Amino acid sequence: MIVKPKVRGFICTTAHREGCKASVKAQIDYVKACHHSDKGPKKVLVIGASMGYGLATRIAAAYSYGAATIGVIFDKPASGSRTATSGWYNTAAFEEFAKADGLYARTLNGDAYSSAVKQQTIDLVRKDLGKVDLVVYSLASPRRTMADGTVYSSVLKTVGSAYTNKTIDLKNNTVHDITVEPANEEEIAATVKVMGGEDWMDWIRALKEADVLEDGAVTIAYSYIGPSITHPMYADGSIGKAKDHLFASSRQISEGDTGVKAYVSVNKALVTQSSAAIPIVPLYISILYKVMKEQNCHEGCIEQMTRLLNEKLYAPQVPTDEEGRIRMDDWEMQPAVQEEVSRLWDKISTENLTECADLDGYHEDFYHLFGFGFDAVDYEVDIDPNAPIEGC
Ligand code: NAD
């Protein structure tokens, strides 16, 4: 099969097996070249391990500390004329590299919200690792199906009143105003159900009850805050309500009787399959990329997660803000970065888009998510779209 990108709105419906492998290899090579702290995780469960921050945490743990990793993913293999999802190819590639490097890596493919997948994960941990010492909760999902079949869908809307600001149409590379309508109470509650901390707590409870958590185990989930231009859409919007719940859940886990210390890490805004879907945010990200690259402080998911493990989560005293959150957005939120972003935001328009924003960088990262745009890959070569993942 010769595989080309097919972009529909903010997703690409095809993925390239060799390109995803090149992406995973580049992330592994980055981690291998970094200096590693002495202390780190040894047996890691990553829930939402196939893309973005979850995949990067898995790679950083495996290649910084030789950690054994179990990943939970929700991806599709290739079938007929359809390629697999990029998360599937990323996972197949990661397992291939990890095993060649003598690292334990196994993956379960299924709905992480379900109790069946929780039980399968517990069985696999017990059989192969005994216990885990780090649980990474990195789900980004549009919906959650409950045990009784009820489906909750998350929305990316404001809370209270509508919000109008600039956004980017990435298909035509134009800037225009968009008005985001407020979510109603039901939509907010559904978003909290999907992206809040309830399922995270269910996971920790289930793992604890099954006695597959090491003494002193740590768990971490990811959040975002960002500058005021994004607040109505994100921190103060429906997704922000879910993130508030996620943070409250971290406190409940830490204060509960499981003995597990829970953290929320506030990460940098980056191009991932999830962030591409949020109105206004992609324009902010493309300006942010330009500014952070110019100021030599730009990072991608792998740089963020390597720094998280090596400098923050396993530091003798975990550095947090006054609320207790780890701030991986520390470089993004530096005044020098935000002042320049704000200056460019005020003047950006279709006419000066390439002058004010790193559009090429945004597009490059977007295509990379699906395995396209890697120099080392010949996209004219006929490839087998099937990529095995042991046990999946
Ligand atoms: P992503 O879309 O790249 O990855 C999400 C992962 O969740 C994928 O591996 C996907 O397969 C998995 N997943 C989704 N539903 C699942 C299910 N039902 N069962 C099992 N796996 C499932 O997203 P991301 O941007 O890496 O987001 C991960 C976390 O980081 C989210 O909590 C997000 O809010 C947070 N975050 C993202 C950004 C950003 O800019 N991208 C910034 C800060 C925080």
What does it look like?
- With 392 residues, the chain is of the alpha/beta class.
- The protein has a domain of 258 residues: 3-Layer(aba) Sandwich (Rossmann fold), CATH 3.40.50.
- It is 40% helix and 17% strand.
- It is built from twelve helices and 13 strands.
- Strands 5-4-3-6-11-12-13 form a seven-stranded parallel β-sheet, sandwiched between helices. Strands 1-2 form a two-stranded antiparallel sheet. The chain has a two-stranded antiparallel ribbon with strand order 7-8.
- Helix 1 crosses helix 3 and helix 5 packs across helix 7.
- Bound molecules: nicotinamide-adenine-dinucleotide (NAD).
- The site of nicotinamide-adenine-dinucleotide has 29 residues, from helix 2, strand 4 and strand 11.
Helix-strand blueprint:
Blueprint: E1 7-8, E2 11-12, H1 17-33, E3 43-47, H2 52-65, E4 68-73, H3 86-100, E5 105-109, H4 115-129, E6 132-137, E7 143-145, E8 151-153, E9 163-169, E10 174-180, H5 185-195, H6 198-209, E11 213-223, H7 238-255, E12 261-266, H8 281-294, H9 301-313, E13 326-327, H10 335-347, H11 353-356, H12 359-369
Parallel strand pairs: 3-4, 3-6, 4-5, 6-11, 11-12, 12-13
Antiparallel strand pairs: 1-2, 7-8, 9-10
Helix pairs in contact: 1-2, 1-3, 2-9, 5-7, 6-7, 8-10
Residues 48-54, 72-75, 87, 111-113, 138-141, 222-224, 267, 269-270, 272-275 line the site of nicotinamide-adenine-dinucleotide.
